[in-house]
Design goal:
There is one protein chain. The protein is mainly alpha-helical. The chain has a single domain (about 25-160), classed as Winged helix-like DNA-binding domain superfamily/Winged helix DNA-binding domain (Arc Repressor Mutant, subunit A), CATH 1.10.10. Helices cover about 60% and strands about 10% of the residues. It has helices at about 1-10, 20-40, 50-60, 65-70, 75-90, 110-130, 135-150; strands at about 90-95, 100-110. The chain has a two-stranded antiparallel ribbon.
Length: about 170
C-alpha cells in the first residue's frame, strides 16, 4: 500500500523519486552522462580526458604542457600522459619552444582536428540524447541555471572538474 502511494507521488512529480534533492539528481545525471559520453568516445579509442585536452589545445594553440595543465587544473604528470597518448596516435604535436628546449608547445595535427570535429558531433548527439524530453526553451533555461550554479561554485568554465589536482 505504501509502495503504491509513493509510486503515485513519483508519477505525479514526473517520475522524480520522492525526497530526491537537486544534488542527488545532478549527481545521477552527471554520472549517467559521463558514462554514456565515455562509451561513445571509446568507439574512437578516446577518453573524455583526451577529448577535453584536444578541445583546449584547439581553443588555445601554442600552450606549453605546463600551461595546459594549469588551464585544466590538472597535475602536469597527468597531462604528460594524455599528451603522450594523443601524440602517439598522431593527433597532437609536441615541439620545443624556441629559446627554451625544456618547454614544449602542444598543437593539433590535421588528424587531431578531424578527431575533434568527430568528437563535437558525438557531443551534440550526446546532449540531444540527454535533453530529448525538454523543449528548446527548457534546455536554454536549464543551461543558464546550471551555468549559474557552476559559476557560484567557482568551477572553471568549459573545464571538467575531473582534471582537478588532488587536494593535499
Amino acid at each position: 500500500m505504501y509502495a503504491r502511494a509513493v509510486q503515485r507521488k513519483e508519477e505525479a512529480a514526473g517520475g522524480v523519486p520522492v525526497g530526491a534533492g537537486v544534488a542527488f539528481l545532478l549527481s545521477q545525471l552527471g554520472s549517467h552522462g559521463a558514462m554514456r559520453f565515455g562509451e561513445r568516445l571509446a568507439d574512437l579509442g578516446l577518453t573524455p580526458g583526451h577529448a577535453g585536452l584536444l578541445r583546449v589545445v584547439a581553443r588555445e594553440p601554442g600552450l606549453s604542457q605546463r600551461q595546459l595543465a594549469d588551464r585544466l587544473g590538472a597535475q602536469p604528470s597527468r597531462v604528460v600522459v594524455l599528451v603522450d597518448e594523443l601524440e602517439s596516435r598522431g593527433l597532437l604535436t609536441r615541439r620545443s619552444r624556441e629559446g627554451d628546449r625544456r618547454s614544449h608547445v602542444i598543437g593539433l595535427t590535421d588528424a587531431g582536428s578531424r578527431s575533434l570535429a568527430t568528437i563535437r558531433t558525438i557531443a551534440e548527439a550526446h546532449e540531444a540524447e540527454l535533453t530529448h524530453t525538454l523543449s528548446e526553451r527548457e534546455r536554454d533555461q536549464l543551461k543558464d541555471l546550471l551555468g549559474r550554479l557552476a559559476a557560484g561554485l567557482g568551477l572553471r568554465p568549459g573545464v571538467h572538474p575531473g582534471y582537478r589536482r588532488p587536494s593535499s
